Amino acid sequence: MMKYALVSTAGVLFACSSFAADCGKVMIAEMNWNSASLMANVDQFILANGYDCEAELVPGDTMPTGTSMIEKGQPDIAPELWTNSMKSALDRGVNDGRLSIASKSLADGGEEGFWVPRYMVEEYPELATIEGIRKHADKFEHPEDPSKSAFYGCPAGWNCQITAKNLFNALNLGESNFELIDPGSGAGLSGSIARAYERNQPWFGYYWAPTAILGKYEMVKVDFGSGVDEQHYIDCISKDDCLEPQVTMYPPSPVYTVTTSEFAERAPDAYEYLSRRSFTNNEMNGLLAWMEENQADGKYAAENFMFEHEDIWSHWVSSDVKVKLDEALDNL
Question: What pLDDT was estimated at residue 6?
Answer without folding.
Answer: 31
